[in-house]
């Protein structure tokens, strides 16, 4: 791990930032002409690449003279891939990013604050959910516009519960256990299916959302880990997961949402926690045998809060280094994809209607076409209530790196190789070691 950090991050950049990354250039207000032979390089993780390319084609039609080169990488390897691209100087002008990696990339000087270059950025703050805006902000400056902004939610099969005599979904994690044991006694092997893989970036995000339901946090304001306190909501939720797997035998693991959805549609499982857009997939009558049976419940716990986040479009320092024309082209591209064009957030709206993706743009919650589409697969009023209880997570520069240690420790505990207490202590030690290396 120590070698990994030294290879990935120059400590001087983490502590002070490069002059190029931290300087505040004058705002670029007037469109610049991009020469036809110039292009911007755009990197994404591999979700619905065909739709991304169609949106690129539409952008290029509306912006003659701009060519966009698309590069796509596997989601589990995206963080490592991008670190390698940045450290090697592989051309990258605009990229997907997530809040758990923003601080790392910004502190290293790899991505730049949009507000330092475009005066239209500030106008979006009142149009974006606070949790999404927070996720896109580092040291008081906003670095992106939302590509995909969502919540991680608790989902259940209503018919299965009703047939077991359960009149309402669980409201606490103790009730999740109780209802799961009822279903288990009735013949269901593992009622709760949990998305887990050592390399899956969203494992720690789903964990955070469950902790938030208990009213907790993962780290305090001084960036110290809270899970080392056995009475903390984080430690309690970690222990719940481990006990559900190793003691109560109500939880099973699957490595990806794409395997969980088919399993849920065979009636083998009743509960899960995933990105909210997966409810649209579960209730898709064209592909799901049990479509219409899956419902949203408020995240179990004392407060019912959940984790809200933003996956965003960032502009890189490499784009800035290429000059004003590329900066302007990159800004136009980000605003077209994440912002408002001709009176509507057209790309985010398309993702919402066609794929059920969440969004950070508040006006879309009242868009009639979006609401009509969402009402086919979710209780819109309950969704809005859960959105209102969503909050962003406290972040740290080393969060993305820490997740690569957290996941295996959780995996070892789920497999019964170590206790929950041992895993939590080891995770705390790893967190503190990373914090020391970065902060000194």
Structural write-up:
The chain has two domains: 2-150 and 309-378, D-Maltodextrin-Binding Protein, domain 2 (3-Layer(aba) Sandwich), CATH 3.40.190.10; 152-307 and 394-439, Periplasmic binding protein-like II (D-Maltodextrin-Binding Protein, domain 2, 3-Layer(aba) Sandwich), CATH 3.40.190.10. It is 45% helix and 16% strand. It has 20 helices and 13 strands. It has helices at 2-8, 11-16, 19-22, 49-62, 78-88, 99-107, 130-135, 158-163, 173-185, 203-213, 233-246, 257-264, 277-282, 317-321, 324-338, 346-355, 368-374, 380-388, 399-414, 420-439; strands at 39-45, 67-73, 94-98, 111-112, 137-138, 141-142, 144-157, 192-195, 251-254, 271-275, 294-297, 306-316, 390-391. Strands 1, 2, 3, 4, 7, 10, 11, 12 and 13 form a nine-stranded mixed β-sheet that branches. The protein has a two-stranded antiparallel ribbon with strand order 5-6. A hairpin with a 2-residue loop joins β5 and β6 (141-142). The two termini are 17 Å apart.
Name of the CATH architecture of the largest domain: 3-Layer(aba) Sandwich
Report the CATH topology name of the largest domain: D-Maltodextrin-Binding Protein, domain 2
Helix content: 40-55%
Average per-residue pLDDT, rounded, comes to 91
Tally of individual domains: 2
How far do the termini sit from each other? 17 Å
CATH C-level class of the largest domain is: Alpha Beta
Low-confidence stretches: 1-36
């Amino acid at each position: 791990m120590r070698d990994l950090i030294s290879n990935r991050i120059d400590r001087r950049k983490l502590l002070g930032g490069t002059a190029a990354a931290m300087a505040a250039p004058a705002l670029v207000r007037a469109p610049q002409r991009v020469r036809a032979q110039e292009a911007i390089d755009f990197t994404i993780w591999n979700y619905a690449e065909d739709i991304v390319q169609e949106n690129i084609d539409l952008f290029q039609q509306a912006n003659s003279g701009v060519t966009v080169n698309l590069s796509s990488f596997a989601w589990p390897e995206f963080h490592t891939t991008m670190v390698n691209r940045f450290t090697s100087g592989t051309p990258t002008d605009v990229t997907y990013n997530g809040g758990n990696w923003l601080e790392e990339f910004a502190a290293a000087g790899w991505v730049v604050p949009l507000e330092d270059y475009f005066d239209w950025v500030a106008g979006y703050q009142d149009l974006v959910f606070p949790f999404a805006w927070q996720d896109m902000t580092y040291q008081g400056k906003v670095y992106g516009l939302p590509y995909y902004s969502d919540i991680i939610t608790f989902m259940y099969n209503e018919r299965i519960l009703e047939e077991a005599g359960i009149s309402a979904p669980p409201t606490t994690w103790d009730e999740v256990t109780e209802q799961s044991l009822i279903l288990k006694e009735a013949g269901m092997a593992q009622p709760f299916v949990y998305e887990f893989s050592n390399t899956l970036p969203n494992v720690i995000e789903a964990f955070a959302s469950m902790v938030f339901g208990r009213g907790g946090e993962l780290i305090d304001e001084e960036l110290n880990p809270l899970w080392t306190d056995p009475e903390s909501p984080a430690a309690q939720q970690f222990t719940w997961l481990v006990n559900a797997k190793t003691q109560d035998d109500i939880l099973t693991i699957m490595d990806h949402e794409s395997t969980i959805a088919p399993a849920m549609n065979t009636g083998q499982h009743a509960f899960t926690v995933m990105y909210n857009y997966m409810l649209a997939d579960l209730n898709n009558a064209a592909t799901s045998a049990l479509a219409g049976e899956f419902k949203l419940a408020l995240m179990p716990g004392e407060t019912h809060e959940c984790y809200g986040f933003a996956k965003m479009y960032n502009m890189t320092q490499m784009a800035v280094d290429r000059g004003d024309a590329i900066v302007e082209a990159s800004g136009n591209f980000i605003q077209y994809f994440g912002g408002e064009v001709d009176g509507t957030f057209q790309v985010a709206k398309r993702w919402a209607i066609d794929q059920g993706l969440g969004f950070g743009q508040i006006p879309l919650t009242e868009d009639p076409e979006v609401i009509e589409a969402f009402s086919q697969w979710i209780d819109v009023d309950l969704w809005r209530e859960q959105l209102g209880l969503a909050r962003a997570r406290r972040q740290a520069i080393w969060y993305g790196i820490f997740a690569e240690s957290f996941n295996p420790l959780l995996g070892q505990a789920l497999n019964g190789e170590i206790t929950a207490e041992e895993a939590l202590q080891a995770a705390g030690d790893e967190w503190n070691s990373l914090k020391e290396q970065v902060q000194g």
